[in-house]
Amino acid sequence: MENEQLRHDFIEEIDEEQLEKAIEEIEEDEDQNLLEEMHDEEEEMSSQLKDVNQYAERVLKYYPIKVNGIKLKSSKSGRTKWIVDTDQGKMVLKQAIMPPGRMLFISNAHEHLQKNGVPMAKIIKTKGGGLCVAAGDHAFILYEHHEGKEVLYYSRNHLKKIMEFMADFHIKSKGFHSIDGTKKRRRVGKWEKLYRWKLQELEGFKKLAQNYQTDPFSELFLQHVDQMLELGRQSLEELNHAEFDSWTKAVIESKMFCQQDFTLARLILKDDQIFMSELHSVNHDLPSRDLRLFLTKVMKKQHVWDSQLCCEMLRAYDRKNPLTKGNYKVLWTDLKFPHLFCAIIHKYYLSQKKAWSDEKYLAALKNTIAVETTKMDFIHQFDDMVERIKLEGAKDNE
Fold first, then answer.
1. What is the pTM of this model?
2. CATH number of the structural domain spanning residue 53
3. Count of domains in the chain?
4. To which H or E segment does residue 379 belong?
5. 127 in helix, strand or coil?
6. Structural domain that includes position 65
């Protein structure tokens, strides 16, 4: 097929080091990209064992528990989970293909939040007091198993509860000092580099698409790419404003971190409150990154930017963790940047979703364009929107 050939042409032309960097720095699915590439290696290793549960049993010997039973729950995207029945209740053993130092950083942050009272599954330490178990390029972590009601994207009440939870998460992440041996991940202070790379990549894809204008995806991409590039350049320029530097310095000094992906798959409702069943990843960055990622995730499922819903969600966050007008300017800058557009274009031309058909890619691009374009009315009403968030939030507190 012609569009498969054009993606192959691009992969042949791009510098290998640049490609690796691009995959690493595209944030929407950053961990999943790397882990999926290594998934075959995991499967090969696991297939050498007569029983996959035997693999987990060897790790569980490092923990001060009596194992009554073990059941494989899932194995995908470089992560495997088992439900473990023990003398202390049900637990979850998770294996991930990542540097053990990275898992140690995540589990260390998990323990920090846990001690500060964030409602989340408790980590179970090893017999030696360790937070996780290392095995070459693999790492394991054991934590309590919890069940609860499903959290829904289409429930305004649930979404507002998530925003309140996110605010509490950010507040209680402050003062985090990682222990020796951890592999930290930090994006705070690197936004300009990321924006420039995404714009450079988008320019490259534009040149490529001009040679394949009969490809429906490329045709639609070319109709909108110049508008998206302009929005990206405006956002890049806005990073020079004092509000961005001020918040960056404050976040670095506070030693806080972001969750990086508040997906509903790792959240449940317990006693009508949000509870985190698993901490997937953490990253030192501005709180606005978590806000932007979750807001755009929700709006993408709505297929259009809902300004009223967005204000309601931000109001719920602001009631618990108030942001300044300067903080909101930074969030607006990051919302203006066409992250969703860059992400779907990146995935298409680098064939990252191998199971996706051409039709599914095209539908995803149409949805992305709808969200990106309808978002601009919200972006252009900055003062009015912030006033709605603040004033109506104040009324709620009366």
1. 0.85
2. 3.30.200.20
3. 2
4. helix 358-380
5. coil
6. 39-145
